[in-house]
Write a structure and sequence with these properties.
By secondary structure, the protein is α/β, with parallel strands linked by helices. The chain has seven helices and ten strands. The chain has a six-stranded mixed sheet. It has a four-stranded antiparallel sheet with strand order 2-1-4-5, covered by helices on one side.
């Protein structure tokens, strides 16, 4: 499902490579944790996989499709159809209701409004928020906002979900509920999830753990 092969990345003015020869793969429906200290290259790697940046060397394949030679328009189209994103800070639009936030990826695909709303409402029901569909983000708790963000990530039937510290802004109990939801959706929908986390306990519950250290995959760190 996801192949990262010998990927390196540097930035002008930086001290050496941010990533240096990173390789790993994920199978379809696998739930993997990406761990490592701050500054290790996790965020850079997530941006490359999410087609928000390009590697200097190496290859990234998503669902068998090479991502390296895409134009900006092609990358945006592939990102919209194959990848869902979940962020630590939710990234919901405050002027939009829950269902309107969930429907945004479908809007960018050109799906007509009635169908967008129906699919968004169905996904909100799936994450347990059917009674909050017309609430705005400020009317929701942190856990509810993250559920909206998860629904938005999944409404377009992506093959891969990239979750960047999805429990980082939540208390431990709410974070555990969000993690349980991600795991349930991973099993039921068969979507591959790559989750960045600093929480080793959460990582141990994943199918695979990948540790990035100083821009490389730590020796013998890929488990699962």
């Amino acid at each position: 499902m996801l192949v990262v092969e010998n990927v390196s990345k540097s930035y002008a003015g930086g001290d050496g490579a941010v990533l240096n020869g990173v390789s790993f793969h994920l199978r379809r429906a696998e739930f993997a944790a990406l761990v490592g200290p701050s500054g290790s290259g996790k965020s850079t790697l997530l941006n490359l996989i999410g087609l928000l940046d390009r590697p200097d060397h190496g290859a990234i394949l998503i669902d068998g499709r090479p991502a390296g030679a895409l134009t900006a328009v092609e990358a945006a189209r592939l990102r919209n159809h194959l990848i869902g994103f979940v962020f630590q800070s939710f990234h919901l639009l405050s002027r939009h209701t829950a269902w309107e936030n969930v429907a945004l990826p479908l809007f960018h695909r050109g799906v007509e409004r009635r169908q967008r709303k129906a699919r968004a409402l169905a996904m909100l029901d799936r994450v347990g928020l059917s009674d909050r569909s017309h609430y705005r983000p400020e009317q929701l708790s942190g856990g509810q906002r993250q559920r909206v963000a998860i629904a938005r990530a999944l409404v377009g039937d992506p093959r891969l979900v990239l979750a960047d510290e999805p429990t980082g802004n939540l208390d431990s109990a709410t974070g555990a509920q969000v993690m349980d939801l991600l795991r349930t959706l991973n099993r039921e929908l068969g979507v591959t999830i790559l989750m960045v986390t600093h929480d080793r306990d959460l990582a141990r519950d994943c199918d695979k753990v990948i540790e990035v250290r100083d821009g490389r995959i730590a020796p013998a760190s890929v488990t699962g």
